User: Which sequence fits this backbone?
């Protein structure tokens, strides 16, 4: 073999060896604290309290990361109920879907009746929901992240009546404030049991004034309502008004002080139950710590080779002055921090699209992104933005406005970086028809989600060049809409003050027509990308030219190909 070939071959051997050694295996845990499997590619929640936001609103995100889940949405109208009426409780799996010819999820889930009917309240609020309840007409918002729990606490039997989806739907129906939503969910879970489809879960629950992290755990497979014991254990901690926080599939609540009612709520038995289960020893001299007791996890951004980089990355983005090290164990990060500058809704949109670019965990570093800098080709980093996302929500609650106008869900379908956030006001009486249908396995041009997947698919081919075109479309539809919201608010408020239904009707018209126009624009954008980069050249429809000489492949890629050719030629000899 020629000497000049030895160096690149040696380099390749080293690279492969490093990749094998540093592959992102799940950190080991003590056997007595065996954890339920974490959804490592699961949902991320970014939270901004009112004093930390640029406009005084509270915000929470939910990246609905799954890859095979239902993405459809519904609006449930407000309703009045007669004395003696009951509310049926259903088991609702986050992951189960049905073929479209069998029907839609939000009709078919009612086939899984738990047998429980609870007393109905006199009035239930209207709300919008996808996989979870996200915003009601009282301006209560929710975002979700699975956090796992100590395995012995799992209860996959059908005995618990409530799972996390059903809890959020009931919270939407019965709550005017974030505190009330937490109390509703906690009390129902304790009385009727929590689990079946779900283990440890976290919810960001907020209204215009307060933002809370609510975490809930099942209590083991032997629990029954007849035991007389609580069927769940839960805890909630308020995010300080001038702080931001994050939940990347990891428990966030540490030491708890239930006497401090301004900042804590929770099960009265959270400590005694932990002692009974052998999860906490009060004689240890250590204070009770919720996350270390019920959902301990190990690892950092560095030790996981980027697999657990979201915690560090969020704090690095919002508070770089704190200079958190990526080697900091995730369990050691603070519950929340004060951001270096106020956070706007567009800042939050940008955070949801983050791929750790420019850091040691950048997914396009070296050869990983291929010739077109595509972060979806290869990499061990689990970033906030991810291809497996069904949709992303930013629930925004704003004081100083009537609740139907103050609350907004900013919703984008599919991969955040190639999608577009569309506003759904809290008070609108329906969601767009294209949001109600769709399935991963059947292309449906009446489904909004497929329009965004269509753009994403054509972006992947020549990623860096195509993404620039997508960004222009986002600026046209997304950035301009964000800037226009004060105008929409003003007009809606004037109409609402004359007659509430007139104001709501105006918002209905705006949200539905705007979403329809964005979806149409994205179908066209997908067509345009297909034409522009067909044959990996560049077709210019306006000039009717095809630039065969346009070099989309960078010089470094051409050099890498030459080196690879030399290596393989040497091997053949």
Assistant:
């Amino acid at each position: 073999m020629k000497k000049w070939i030895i160096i690149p071959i040696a380099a390749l051997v080293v690279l492969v060896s490093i990749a094998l050694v540093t592959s992102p295996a799940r950190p080991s845990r003590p056997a007595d604290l065996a954890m339920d499997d974490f959804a490592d590619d699961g949902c991320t929640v970014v939270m901004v309290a009112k004093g930390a936001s640029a406009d005084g609103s509270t915000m929470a995100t939910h990246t609905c990361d799954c890859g095979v889940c239902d993405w459809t949405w519904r609006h449930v109208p407000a309703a009045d109920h007669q004395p003696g009426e009951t509310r049926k409780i259903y088991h609702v799996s986050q992951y189960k879907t049905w073929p479209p010819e069998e029907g839609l999820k939000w009709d078919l889930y009612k086939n899984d009746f738990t047998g429980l009917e609870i007393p109905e309240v006199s009035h239930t609020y209207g709300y919008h929901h996808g996989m979870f309840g996200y915003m009601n007409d009282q301006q209560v918002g929710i975002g979700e992240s699975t956090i796992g729990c100590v395995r012995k606490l799992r209860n996959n039997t059908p005995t618990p009546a409530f799972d996390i989806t059903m809890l959020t739907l009931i919270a939407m129906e019965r709550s005017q404030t974030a505190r009330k939503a937490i109390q509703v969910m906690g009390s129902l879970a304790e009385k009727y049991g929590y689990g079946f489809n779900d283990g440890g879960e976290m919810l960001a629950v907020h209204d215009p004034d307060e933002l809370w992290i609510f975490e809930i755990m099942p209590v083991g497979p032997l629990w029954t309502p007849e035991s007389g014991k609580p069927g769940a254990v839960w805890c909630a901690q308020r995010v300080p008004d001038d702080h931001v926080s994050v939940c990347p599939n990891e428990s966030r609540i540490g030491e708890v002080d239930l006497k401090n009612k301004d900042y804590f709520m929770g099960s009265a038995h959270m400590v005694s139950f932990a002692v009974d289960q052998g999860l906490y020893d009060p004689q240890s001299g250590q204070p009770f710590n919720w996350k270390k007791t019920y959902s301990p996890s190990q690892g950092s951004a560095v030790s996981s080779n980027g697999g657990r980089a979201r915690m560090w990355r969020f704090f690095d983005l919002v508070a770089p002055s704190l200079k958190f090290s990526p080697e900091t164990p995730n369990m050691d990060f603070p519950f929340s921090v004060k951001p270096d500058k106020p956070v706007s809704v567009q800042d939050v949109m940008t955070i949801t699209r983050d791929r750790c670019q420019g850091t040691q965990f950048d997914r396009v570093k070296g050869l990983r992104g291929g010739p077109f800098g595509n972060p979806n080709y290869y990499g061990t980093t689990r970033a906030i933005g991810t291809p497996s996302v069904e949709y992303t929500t930013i629930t925004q609650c704003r004081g100083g406005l009537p609740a139907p106008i103050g609350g907004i869900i900013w919703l984008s379908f599919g991969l955040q970086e190639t999608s577009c956030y569309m506003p759904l006001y809290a008070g609108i009486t329906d969601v767009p028809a294209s949001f109600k249908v769709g399935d991963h396995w059947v292309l449906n041009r009446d489904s909004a989600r497929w329009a965004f997947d269509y753009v994403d698919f054509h972006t992947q081919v020549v990623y860096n060049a195509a993404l620039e075109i997508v960004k222009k479309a986002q600026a046209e539809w997304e950035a301009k809409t964000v800037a226009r919201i004060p105008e929409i608010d003003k007009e809606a408020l004037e109409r609402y003050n004359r007659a509430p239904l007139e104001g709501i009707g105006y918002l209905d018209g705006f949200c539905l027509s705007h979403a329809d126009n964005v979806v149409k624009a994205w179908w066209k954008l997908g067509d345009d990308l297909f034409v522009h980069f067909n044959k990996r050249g560049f077709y210019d429809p306006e000039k009717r030219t095809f630039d065969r000489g346009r070099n989309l492949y960078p010089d470094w890629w051409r050099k890498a190909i030459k080196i690879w050719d030399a290596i393989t030629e040497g091997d053949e000899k």
Notes: Residues 34-399 form one domain.
